[in-house]
Specification:
By secondary structure, the protein is an alpha+beta fold. The chain contains 10 helices and 7 strands. The longest helix has about 40 residues. About 15% of the residues are buried.
Length: about 300
């Protein structure tokens, strides 16, 4: 159910556990009121208003649980909610609440993502200094770095550490592919194109050659260098249909050279396959791939 903006802001204020790290001065909260005045509904408008308020909470508790809020502390949530409602037009309160919202996003999403990015590298992201750099930038404190200098330094280290991590994790995989292609190029029947794509004609077709915009029907099987089959339309007994531009570059190049009725074996370097990122669990970054591709038809 749609909720008013002030409810969303109050939710963020009540849910954030990171406020002390994001601001330099805590806000003084009023003590929890133990006594709750009884509700008096003296008119129809009173009753409608009260019922409307209750109705607007429909679905809120599951949402709070998704935000990892301890719902046994609902009195704290209510206290924060009422303070935000009463001070909704106060610029200081707005700034404070927005700070809580940003703190939650940084603490739960941005920081964990950045930490993961620097795994298996010589460097790591330390939370306290990350937060200090974040707040110093906002307060225009350039004692250590100007913002431009910080961005340049971080970008340089990010790039260097990424190269170290990828060499550590996938260098052997990249080198194995390079060695395979060098040796494979010397085998009988293997043709190497300027792009680096290699292929061998298993069955020579005599039909039409597709263009980049034609829809083609193919059977195929894809393997890693160790023989692991990661995909096969033959096993599914279901040919695939697509245009050559919808697949990896190695396939695009081959399909626009193959006559219908052909069956080729493709040896695709990682640059023409899934590159530095890989695909799924089986295809690691920098993987050279082998495909048997049978061009069945051009779908008109």
């Amino acid at each position: 159910m749609k909720k008013a903006l002030f409810i969303a802001l109050a939710l963020v204020a009540g849910a954030s556990s990171f406020t002390a790290n994001a601001v330099k001065k805590k806000m003084v909260m009023a003590p929890v009121q133990e006594k709750v005045e009884p509700v008096v509904l003296a008119s129809s408008s009173d009753s409608v208003s009260y019922a409307a308020g209750m109705t607007m909470t429909n679905g809120l508790v599951p949402f709070l649980l998704q935000q990892k809020m301890d719902t046994t502390l609902m009195s704290e949530f209510v206290r924060s909610f009422m303070e935000n409602v009463k001070r909704g037009d106060d610029p200081k309160m707005k700034a404070y609440v927005i700070g809580m919202s940003i703190a939650q996003q940084v603490n739960e999403r941005m920081l964990p993502g950045m930490r993961k990015e620097f795994e298996n590298t010589p460097d790591s992201i330390l939370a306290d200094l990350f937060y200090r750099g974040f707040t110093d930038a906002l307060m225009k404190d350039t004692t250590v770095f100007t913002l431009n200098k910080a961005e340049d330094y971080f970008t340089e280290k990010q790039k260097a550490d990424k190269a170290i991590r990828e060499e550590k994790l996938y260098g052997a995989n990249r080198d194995a592919g390079k060695k395979f292609l060098e040796e494979n190029a010397q085998k009988e029947g293997v043709i190497t194109l300027p792009s680096g794509l290699q292929y061998k004609v298993l069955v020579k077709g005599e039909g039409e050659v597709p263009t980049r915009s034609d829809k083609v029907k193919v059977h195929y099987e894809g393997r890693l260098l160790d023989g692991t089959v990661f995909d096969s339309s033959y096993k599914r007994n279901e040919p695939s249909e697509f245009t050559p531009t919808q697949v990896i570059k190695g396939w695009t190049e081959a399909l626009t050279m193959m006559p219908v009725g052909s069956k080729w074996q493709l040896y695709i370097p990682y640059e023409l396959a899934y590159g530095e990122r890989g695909a799924g669990e089986d295809i690691k970054p920098y993987s050279t791939l082998i495909f048997d591709v049978e061009l069945l038809d051009i779908v008109k």
